[in-house]
């Protein structure tokens, strides 16, 4: 049980950034190493939200609203992307009966 | 006075026949072709009558063609006495030859094409003589060269005709190169190309200060003139130019275009008079050309070749005339030569036409009874060119020879000897063609009136043309030389001797010619083969050029250097690309890995360099 004094100490800025970096690294790793399209897709979302987190952090730190606005932009884009992306994934699955990303490479070259 | 109308008529004729000639009937083609030139002639007559005695040069300015810095070149036409004479010769003889060509070309293919070219030629020739500055003259100069090329190669399905056309064009390029350089130098020296301004400025120059530059300019102009007027060393194209139809030989390669060089020198008389070295060069070149061409003419068997070498020889006389300072005598001979040499060629054309294309004198003979008009008119022309007393050639040739005597007596004696040879070779041709027995196999017939008409008019002009006293007309421009009756009669006597010799050799004692040729074996072979000049040029210039182009320029520079560089660049790019290609695999995850790698490298770099600050 932490003491009330400890609760009053603000979480240091670097913790937020480290969390953001970890989330981003996880997203990158997922994007690169996973084969399932849905997982890759979710990794992209994870990277986006990691970036959102650092935006908000810096915005709070510098007492400026820019970062918030950016993160809203990113959310809107991510929502749109999710709608389109999921539609593509559904179509791919209907046509190919697979979600393995390496098997959907007929547009290479 | 609307001088521009003079050349514009033939240009319209050219456009009409060139654009629509294929679709319109022959009668209409004839109307356009002959009518346009006749209109032009009529306008020349009207203009000259309207101008009266031309006290000062009459100039018309149409528009400024080139305006760039100091350079100002206008499209200006001008008429003075010299141009007036040239205009009369070009349009007058041109009209006659156009009429003749209607008959001569009647059965030839490409009828409209022929007349289109001929009209285009008239246009450029008239621009040449009307031009008031060197550049406009050069336009006409090149234009007539183009038409000459087109018409020499008129029978373009024949290899020899196209080769002859190329030869004429390429040899003339050498001359034109000299002409261009001369123009550059004139501009550099005088700051203008306008005749009046250049000559006025040249008159004011002191001799000692300007002799170098003026000699250079005039020598370069002379190079241009030797090309166009077929003088040594650039005369070789003219005999080959006989591959064209005979009216072309008459109009372009005897009466008008080839005299452009003489005209140009007479036009630039002010410059030439200030450069005595050039004047001597002109005279010597003219004399040498006259002599050597005459010797070749004595041995040729093709009737057109005889007259072609005769043209070269007579042009040599004109050069001799202008070279010794007798410009008006040179122009006089130019005019009478246009009459009698035009007639000689047209007559030769009538003979060839009547024999269905036969040109070899050995296949002729006894034609007098078959084609009387042609024979008599050709006889008149032969008399005139031989300098028979009181014919046109007598006056003009002797005016030149007398002037040559006053300059240097030895030039006179060589000229007289050449006059004797001239008489010999034209009458040799006439006797071989018209007297004796017929040796060929065709059925000779007289030509229609459309051809014999111009022959008769030119015959009258050849006999009586000397009464047009050109030196008197040109007196305001050039100083007239003194006359010397004794010398004139002497050269006429030598001419008669030449005629007599030809009669003995080819009529009275047949066979004497062959035995004489045999006894002079080596010399005869040398002359018969035109001194092997063509072969020498081939060996000295043409072959090395072709060989050099083939080995050095083609295989070495083009295939080796240029192609090698281009292909090398291509090969190297492909090599680099084949390596870089490996990066672009099309695999999205590898791209992402590269991005990550790049970001890491970037971050590390920033970190090591101490942050962004």
Q: Can you tell me the CATH architecture of the domain at 35-97 in chain A?
A: Orthogonal Bundle
Backbone structural class of chain A: mainly alpha
* Subunit arrangement of the protein: heterodimer
- How many β strands of chain A by DSSP? 0
Largest sheet of chain B: 2 strands, antiparallel
What Rg of chain A, in angstroms, do the CA atoms define?
Answer: 19 Å
The CATH topology of the domain at 35-97 in chain A is given as Helix Hairpins
Mean pLDDT across every amino acid position of chain A: 88
Tell me the overall shape of chain B: globular
Query: Uncertain spans of chain B, ≥5 residues at pLDDT below 50?
Result: none
Task: Please tally the helical runs of chain B, counting DSSP H or I stretches of 4 or more residues.
Answer: 25
Number of strands of chain B: 2
Protein architecture, described:
The complex is a heterodimer of chains A (109) and B (613). Chain A has 109 residues and is an all-alpha fold. Chain A has a domain at 35-97: Helix Hairpins (Orthogonal Bundle), CATH 1.10.287. Chain A contains four helices and no strands. Chain A has helices at residues 4-8, 13-33, 37-62, 66-96. In chain A, helix 2 packs antiparallel against helix 3 (37-62) and helix 3 packs antiparallel against helix 4. Chain B contains 25 helices and two strands. Chain B starts with a helix and ends in a 5-residue tail after the last helix. The model of chain B has no long low-confidence stretch (mean pLDDT 90). Chains A and B meet through helix 2 of A and helix 25 of B.
Short description:
The complex is a heterodimer of chains A (109) and B (613). Chain A is mainly α.
Question: Which properties best describe this structure?
Answer:
heterodimer, A: 109 residues, mainly alpha, Helix Hairpins, 76% helix, elongated, B: 613 residues, two-stranded antiparallel sheet, 74% helix
């Amino acid at each position: 049980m932490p003491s009330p004094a400890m609760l009053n100490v603000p979480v240091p800025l670097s913790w937020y950034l480290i969390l953001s970096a970890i989330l981003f690294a996880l997203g990158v790793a997922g994007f690169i190493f996973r084969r399932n399209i849905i997982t890759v897709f979710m990794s992209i979302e994870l990277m986006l939200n990691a970036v959102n987190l650092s935006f908000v952090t810096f915005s709070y730190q510098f007492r400026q609203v820019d970062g918030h606005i950016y993160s809203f932009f990113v959310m809107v884009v991510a929502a749109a992307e999710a709608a389109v992306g999921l539609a593509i994934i559904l179509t791919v699955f209907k046509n190919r009966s697979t979600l393995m990303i390496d098997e959907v490479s007929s547009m290479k070259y | 006075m609307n001088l521009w109308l003079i050349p514009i008529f033939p240009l319209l004729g050219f456009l009409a026949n060139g654009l629509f000639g294929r679709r319109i009937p022959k009668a209409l083609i004839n109307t356009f072709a002959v009518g346009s030139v006749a209109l032009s002639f009529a306008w020349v007559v009207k203009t000259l009558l309207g101008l009266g005695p031309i006290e000062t040069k009459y100039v018309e300015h149409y528009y400024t063609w080139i305006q760039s810095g100091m350079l100002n070149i206008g499209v200006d036409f001008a008429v003075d006495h010299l141009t007036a004479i040239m205009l009369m010769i070009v349009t007058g003889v041109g009209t006659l030859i156009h009429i003749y060509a209607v008959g001569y070309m009647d059965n030839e293919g490409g009828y409209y094409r022929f007349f289109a070219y001929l009209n285009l030629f008239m246009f450029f020739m008239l621009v040449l003589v009307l031009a008031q500055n060197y550049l406009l003259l050069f336009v006409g100069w090149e234009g007539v060269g183009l038409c000459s090329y087109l018409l020499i190669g008129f029978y373009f399905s024949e290899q020899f005709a196209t080769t002859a056309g190329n030869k004429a064009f390429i040899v003339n390029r050498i001359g034109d190169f000299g002409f261009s350089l001369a123009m550059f130098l004139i501009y550099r020296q005088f700051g203008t190309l306008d005749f009046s301004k250049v000559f006025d400025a040249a008159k004011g120059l002191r001799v000692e200060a300007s002799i170098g530059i003026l000699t250079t300019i005039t020598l370069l102009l002379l190079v241009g003139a030797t090309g166009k007027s077929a003088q040594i060393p650039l005369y070789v194209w003219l005999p080959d130019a006989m591959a064209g139809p005979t009216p072309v030989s008459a109009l372009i390669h005897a009466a008008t275009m080839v005299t452009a060089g003489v005209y140009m020198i007479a036009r630039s008389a002010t410059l030439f008079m200030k450069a005595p070295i050039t004047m001597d060069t002109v005279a010597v070149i003219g004399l040498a050309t006259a002599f050597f061409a005459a010797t070749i003419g004595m041995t040729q068997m093709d009737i057109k070749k005889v007259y072609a070498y005769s043209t070269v020889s007579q042009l040599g006389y004109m050069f001799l005339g202008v070279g010794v300072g007798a410009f008006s005598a040179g122009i006089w001979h130019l005019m009478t030569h246009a009459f009698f040499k035009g007639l000689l060629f047209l007559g030769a054309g009538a003979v060839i036409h009547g024999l269905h294309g036969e040109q070899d004198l050995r296949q002729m003979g006894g034609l007098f009874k078959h084609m009387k008009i042609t024979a008599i008119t050709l006889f008149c022309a032969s008399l005139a060119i031989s300098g028979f007393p009181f014919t046109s050639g007598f006056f003009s040739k002797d005016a030149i020879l007398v002037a040559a005597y006053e300059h240097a007596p030895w030039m006179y004696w060589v000229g007289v000897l050449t006059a004797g040879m001239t008489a010999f070779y034209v009458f040799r041709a006439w006797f071989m063609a018209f007297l004796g027995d017929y040796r060929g196999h065709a059925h000779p017939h007289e030509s229609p009136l459309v051809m014999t008409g111009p022959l008769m008019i030119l015959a009258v002009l050849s006999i009586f043309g000397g009464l047009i006293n050109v030196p008197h007309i040109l007196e305001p421009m050039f100083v007239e030389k003194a006359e010397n009756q004794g010398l004139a009669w002497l050269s006429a006597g030598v001419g008669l001797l030449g005629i007599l010799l030809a009669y003995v050799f080819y009529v009275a004692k047949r066979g004497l010619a062959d035995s004489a040729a045999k006894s002079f074996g080596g010399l005869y072979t040398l002359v018969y083969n035109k001194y092997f000049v063509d072969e020498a040029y081939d060996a000295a210039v043409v072959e090395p050029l072709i060989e050099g182009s083939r080995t050095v320029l083609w295989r070495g520079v083009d295939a080796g250097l240029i192609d090698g560089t281009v292909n090398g660049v291509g090969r190297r790019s492909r090599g680099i690309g084949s390596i870089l290609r490996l990066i672009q695999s099309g695999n999205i995850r590898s791209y992402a890995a590269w991005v990550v790698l790049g970001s890491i490298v970037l971050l590390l770099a920033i970190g090591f360099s101490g942050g962004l600050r």
